[in-house]
Amino acid sequence: MFLFDGPPHGRLLVLAHGAGAPMDSPFLAAMAAGLARRGLRVARFEFPYMHARREGGGRRAPDREPELRRAWLQAIEAIQAAEGTDAPGGGALLFSRLLAGLLYETPANQVGTYAGAALLLGGVALLATAFPARRAAAIAPALALRRE
């Protein structure tokens, strides 16, 4: 099942839902409508686990990455057949491949990647605490106590 938005002959963009919301969620519908207003033809589809949930199967965890990739490629082929178009562009497949690599293919022995992520997150935490602490340190304690 697919949902289409936008002009019939616009450039095709295929969107899939996230892990917790279906393809007709308000966020994805608003995103598709906004892209359609810009002249894109937007096709939305659901992965098999979400389709089973919609059919009354209850809440399920997302499928494994190979099944999600297979469903993604099948959806692109089905949309191409329905729309009579060629591939939606190498950019979409390249982006999905890059995202899959970032999410699923970081081996446990890549110490540099995990150390970099830890340093980045630690830096963000330090910056988030440094600004309020600096502002609080600028206040004279005697002045603060006098006002109370």
What does this structure look like?
By secondary structure, this protein is mainly alpha-helical. The protein has 2 domains: 2-105, no CATH class; 116-147. The chain has 6 helices and 3 strands; from the N terminus they run ββαβααααα. The protein has helices spanning 26-37, 48-57, 65-83, 90-104, 111-137, 141-147, and strands spanning 2-5, 12-16, 41-45. The termini are far apart. The mean pLDDT is 78.
Uncertain ranges: none
Structural class: mainly alpha
Radius of gyration, in Å, reads 23 Å
Compute the number of structural domains. Answer: 2
Report the end-to-end length measured between terminal Cα atoms.
Answer: 64 Å
Strand proportion:
5-15%
Based on Cα principal axes, name the global outline.
Answer: elongated
Could you estimate the helical fraction of the residues in percent? 55-70%
* Biggest sheet statistics: 3 strands, mixed
Helical run tally: 6
Nearest-integer average pLDDT: 78
* Strands side by side in the biggest sheet: 1-3-2
The succession of helices and strands, N to C, reads EEHEHHHHH
Number of extended strands: 3
